[in-house]
Amino acid sequence: MKMKIFGTILLLLLAILGASCGPAEADSATATPEKERFTPTVRIVVPSPTAPAVESGSTSPLALGGNYTCAITPAGGIACWGNNRYGQLGNGTVINSALPAPIGRLSSGVVAVAAGWSHNCALRAGGGLECWGANAKGQLGDGTNTDSRAPVAVSGLSTGVESVAAGHRHTCVVMETGAVKCWGENASGCVGDGTGVNRNLPVDVPGMEVGAAGLDAGAGHTCAVMDDGAVKCWGWNPSGQLGNGTATDSRVPADVASLPGPALAVAAGDQHTCALLADGTVACWGANASGQLGNGTRTRSGIPVAVAGLSGVVEIAAGGAHTCARLEDGGVKCWGDDQSGQLGDGGYGNQTAPVDVDGLAGGAVRIASGFGHTCAVLADGRIQCWGWNNEGQLGDGTPAGRRIPGDVVGMGAGPAQVSVGWSNACALIQPGGGIRCWGLNGGGQLGDGTYSDSGQPVRVKGLDAERIAVAVGGGHVCALSAKGGVKCWGRNDYGQLGSGANSDQNTPVDVVGLPEAAIALAAGKDHTCALTAAGGVKCWGANAFGQLGNGAVVNSARPVDVAGLSEGVAAIAAGGNHTCALTRGGAVKCWGSNRYGQLGDGSVEDRPAPVGVEGLAAGVDSIAAGGFHSCAIVAGTALKCWGGNAFGQVGDSTATDRPLPADVKWLAGTPASVSAGYDFSCAIMRAGNLRCWGNNEFGQLGDGTNAVHHTPVSVLGLESKALLLAAGYYTACAVTADGRMKCWGNNLYGQLGDGSTVNSTLPVEVVGLE
Fold first, then answer.
1. Going by C-beta distance under 8 Å and a sequence separation of 6 or more, which residues neighbour residue 41?
2. What is the DSSP string of 465-507?
3. pLDDT grade for 144, boundaries at 50, 70 and 90
4. CB-CB contact of 525 with 473 (8 Å)
5. How far apart are CA 368 and CA 57, in angstroms?
6. CA–CA separation, 308 vs 324, rounded Å?
7. Which residues pair with 367 in a beta bridge?
8. Which terminus of the chain is more exposed, N or C, with fewer CB under 10 A?
9. For all residues of the chain together, what is the average pLDDT?
């Protein structure tokens, strides 16, 4: 849908939403404390290099909910932290996390995220919507009232969604056509269908079939900005938060009265609402006991009032009883409730007019507000938060609140992704740092225009700053752009570069014949696969074992469709000569070489088309594929591996091959992520410690020895520090919480990146990644 306000303006849909639809009511039989009445949300879309000064949250991977926070990662995945009582962190558990925890099924392809009090929704490239968390009132939209600890598809919304907002227990979307649909709790009419009946499936909002440019959901109300700049609200209205001059609930959309000018965006809090106007000023209405209307008083208003002394605003965010604005110069001002330090001015006193957030002058590029905390994305890529932190929602690893902004651990500038291949490694540097590679370069896999090995990172030539993912294979590398294009470089004897030819390339070349935009990549020994926005899988390169999955065993220098996987896939992983896919329903399917049982179907027969992994038809959160084995995290707590096990890489304390999934023993923690190397495996625990098992000939287990281990051992020196992980041939690398990268294992070609060619049984720091 083209969004038109005075011609063509991209809507700034912003922040944050609210509590229950009507009087606060607990998500379960346990009463919700009074301070837990608000649920915020924020809409984020893919960055646009041509976006105007006021645009729709394009670089802000951020959504604040009820005592938790979620962020879109540079690779297009989601990480969440804070309260997890209902599974709202999406990682398969109900364990709180004071540090960012990735969602395995949403590792890429996410363009927007919305956070409610205890549920979230993610908008994928292509317009499909998935939600997770609390669902007592049907707010997940899957036709049930069952909570989900992992993302589930919203019924009937696999395509066509343009933006999403999540309230306390309801959710709404704007479709590409300009229509509005809502679902969830509806006691006071916040679903807007005129009935007051809860809905666990999306329903149309009457009178909103066309013309909506964006929306936000508050405590028990919803507001939408129209193409002509008008604002309409519906739902709970005890404090005048609908802006129609009354305190009467409305189960259908009602016009906001006396709006001073056309609106560009709207932000809804607990019982107040604010609009960003086309002239850069802000008007608010509703409850004002804490000064959240910003007009210098504490008197509520049923119609819009101007925020005092505020101009040049490009973004707004409404929290429980506070409001924030980002100015065109990058500064941030907040007003209203400050009992938890959420105004960020260093104090705890409520403010009835805007005050400056300490330390953010000129630095913020996006903002979002939760019930009692606030966050900002800075120009250098860091995320900073402040305010209430009782359940880890500030993401700094502590429960201590903050009155001024502080960094979220591991969500700053620097290495955003690492991938390790046979004898080289690459890192994606954010923001705008491009891709750096190091190690073996005999086939041009470093992408720097030479064929010379390098023991330190070198910049890949010819790649724009919009790269969001990198995948390293046996002797080739591929990179994904924010727009879905794929470029590859390095060895190409089997067509693994996807260029239509078979000649090696020492600088990136386009993958040809990829008609759909890609959202994720996986590189095997001599083949590559891409996940499309629709959830389909396409592969190219070597195919002697059927690893391309198209039912044949003929190599292809162009992408071919994987049989039976044209939609519904959430993540992909490529091993030596096999490939696996994780469906959005949590099932695992694999294809290709199966000599050691790495496909997990109970046989040792190669499969040129996908087969289901036995016992993993649902509940899987993430997958990994190694040389001859595969692994999966199940239900957020169990780690299972299968396939070749000569060195104990399956981790079941034996050296017996496993054609069916087996439990990894003695993990000594709950797994957060897993990576499979050639004949070893590694996992990051939720506490941040890293453990590896399997072959250790070159020190790739990182325990200071060369002893093989059939069960996990700790990587020394990385206790409670690892955030990102990649295992390769005989080398592994991790990104630490302070943004540094360390590698260990084989270093014959300089693949440890420390400037030497000396193997290391302990992590050493990669140098020159700036």
1. 15, 16, 17, 63, 64, 65, 114, 115, 116, 164, 165, 166, 167, 216, 217
2. TTEEEEEE-SSEEEEEETTS-EEEEE--TTSTT-SSS---EEE
3. very high
4. yes
5. 10
6. 13
7. 376
8. C
9. 90
Residue 509 vs residues 12, 440, 496, 501: alpha-carbon distances, Å: 35, 19, 12, 11
- What's the confidence (pLDDT) of residue 540? 98
Q: What is the CA radius of gyration of the chain?
A: 25
Please say whether the beta carbons of 256 and 244 come within 8 A. yes
> pLDDT-derived band of residue 22, with 50, 70 and 90 as boundaries?
low
Between the CA of residue 489 and those of 26, 379, 701, what are the distances in Å?
A: 54, 31, 29
| Helix, strand, coil content of the chain in percent (nearest 5) | 0, 40, 60
Strand 505-510, strand 486-490: pairing: antiparallel
Residues 6+ apart with CB under 8 A from 33: none
The single residue listed with the structure tokens 């669902």 is 135
Give the number of other CB atoms < 10 A from CB of residue 26.
Answer: 12
Name which of 335, 338, 326, 344 is nearest 306 in CA terms: 335
Q: Are 22 and 188 in contact (CB under 8 A)?
A: yes
Q: How many angstroms separate the CA atoms of 400 and 387, rounded?
A: 9
pLDDT at residue 74, rounded to an integer: 81
Q: Shortest CA distance to 67 belongs to which of 439, 323, 392, 284?
A: 392
Q: Model confidence at 14, in pLDDT bands (50, 70, 90)?
A: very low
Nearest Cα neighbor of 16 from 386, 324, 331, 363 is 324
Euclidean distance between CA atoms 258 and 304, whole angstroms: 7
Rounded Cα–Cα distance for residues 512 and 498 (Å): 6
267 contact partners, CB below 8 Å, separation of at least 6: 14, 15, 16, 216, 273, 274, 275, 276, 316, 317, 318, 323
- Beta strands at 578-583 and 569-574: parallel, antiparallel or unpaired: antiparallel
Burial of 501 (0-12, 13-18, 19+ CB in 10 A): middle
What the block records as the tokens of 733 is: 């690398």
pTM of the model: 0.89
Question: What whole-number distance in Å separates Cα of residue 744 and Cα of residue 680?
Answer: 13
Cα dihedral 2, 8, 9, 10 sign: positive
Q: How far is 420 from 20, CA to CA, in rounded Å? A: 46
**Whole-Å CA distances, 161 to 439, 517, 700:** 43, 17, 45
Across 485-564, where does the E strand assignment appear? 486-490, 505-510, 518-523, 527-532, 537-541, 556-561
Which residue matches tokens 């028990």?
A: 220
AA identity, residue 46: V
Residue 635 in tokens = 């239900």
Separation in Å, CA 315 to CA 360, 364, 381, 434, 635: 14, 11, 18, 28, 38
Cα gap 681→694, rounded to integer Å:
6
DSSP state of 143: S
The more confidently predicted of residues 226 and 361 is: 226
Q: What residue type is assigned to position 294 of the chain?
A: G
